[in-house]
Design goal:
Length: 408
């Protein structure tokens, strides 16, 4: 029963040592299910692929959904920790890569197991706990897969959706923001068609490398020229693949785009601008075929409910152990909003400080704190390493405090 901090740290180190990519979280799901069963929860595995659902019902009362994600990333760990990952896995593209819990989802999973234990041992509440251990957050498909597999039909609809993401701010700090808190995310694959040929005779070709370069340049004007400076938009071309050797002009180029927005109308405008520019540049280049624009994944902004956030803040304040701040809008994204939207329930999703407070000891102003944060390895870095014990203790307590404020 993972109730003590030592037991939680052992679970965390085990999960960290054995990370699994999205949709492959078989071992992790097994560990989660075994612990939940030992705590007396009703457990269902294989929900939306590798998802796990644990429920515990005590008389009448509200249903509280607590959510953790379980997947890791194709990153080669460089933390030097004694429990560092040496795992590899075959990704969706068929290539083998190292795998690491570089986003801290092992923290989320362990904290939710800790909260499950403490709430199961606490006789003072009534209602229903709906614990959701979600696969494949990074791919953006895990929450939707669980909804599509009948999550709320089979296990009931929650009155609130609660969860947290570990971040490189000091342990003891929690970030709660009402309204749009995490950006919407759209990942696109754009295939630009040209006409290949000999590198010495470009006049006989339509060069997709030059076309792709124009598209990349022109896309930079979407944020700078088409969106108001007061709006939050990120447009990144994260991949550009074309050609194999210097003396052959290839017949196509493939771009990977990541777009982050916080406002639905702005998102619509940005996506339309991307399509217009891609089609316009292809026409200007004399491309033999229309470009293809595919959506690889899309998830909405996480819009935190104001009343739910107030309630969570009050619960945190009553414990007196945290500094609770408004972190401002985060351009990172999260698919937890899909769970809340599908359930029609308010959402409160907060940031959990996971960095060693000693690193901030000499900082005396907000600017200095920010400089320390900017210098720390962030989520997705091969060196990302939350301070395990204190972070888990804080994360478990935060989940329990928030859940209890509905279940009291
Ligand atoms: Zn991530
Ligand atoms: Zn994450």
């Amino acid at each position: 029963m993972p109730a003590t901090l030592d037991e939680l740290v052992a679970i965390y180190e085990d999960l960290h040592r054995h990370p699994e990519l999205g949709r492959q979280e078989h071992r992790t799901a097994g560990v989660v299910a075994e612990h939940l069963r030992s705590l007396g929860y009703d457990v269902a595995q294989g929900v939306g692929g590798t998802g796990v659902v644990g429920t515990l019902t005590r008389r009448e009362g509200p249903t509280v959904l607590l959510r953790a994600d379980m997947d890791a990333l194709p990153v080669q760990e460089a933390t030097g920790l004694p429990y560092a990952s040496e795992a590899t896995a075959i990704g969706a593209d068929g290539t083998e890569s190292p795998v690491m819990h570089a986003c801290g989802h092992d923290v989320h999973t362990t904290c939710l197991l800790g909260a499950a234990a403490r709430l199961a041992a606490d006789p003072r509440w009534q209602g229903r706990l709906l614990l959701v251990f979600q696969p494949d957050e990074e791919g953006g498909g895990g929450a939707q897969a669980m909804v599509d597999d009948g999550l709320f039909v089979r296990f009931g609809t929650p009155d609130v959706v609660l969860g947290q993401h570990v971040a490189p701010v000091p342990v003891g700090v929690l970030g709660v923001r009402s309204g749009p808190a995490f950006a919407a995310s759209d990942a696109l694959r754009i295939t630009l068609h040209g006409t290949g040929g000999h590198g010495s005779r470009p006049e006989t070709t339509v060069d997709p490398v030059v076309l792709g370069a124009s598209v990349v340049q022109r896309l930079q004007t979407v944020v700078s020229r088409e969106v108001a400076a007061t709006e939050t938009v990120v447009l990144t071309v994260g991949s550009f693949h074309a050609g194999t050797v210097a003396n052959v002009i290839p017949d196509r180029a493939v771009l990977g785009l990541s777009i982050r927005t916080t406002d639905a109308d702005v998102r619509t405008r940005v996506l339309a601008a991307v399509e217009r520019i891609v089609r316009g540049e292809a026409a200007a280049a004399g491309a033999p075929r229309e470009p293809e624009i595919e959506t690889l994944n899309t998830f909405p902004a996480v819009v935190n409910d104001a009343a739910a956030c107030d309630r969570v803040r009050e619960a945190f304040a009553a414990e007196g152990r945290w500094v609770v701040v408004d972190p401002g809008p985060v351009t990172g994204s999260e698919d937890v909003g899909i769970l809340a939207d599908a359930a029609g329930a308010p959402c409160a999703y907060w940031l959990l400080g996971g960095a060693d407070p000693a690193l901030f000891a000499s900082a005396t102003s907000v600017d200095e704190i920010r400089r320390v944060v900017d210098g720390l390895p962030s989520n997705h870095s091969p060196r990302y390493a939350p301070l395990a014990g204190p972070t888990l203790e804080s994360g478990v307590a935060a989940l329990v405090a928030a859940a209890r404020s509905w279940l009291a």
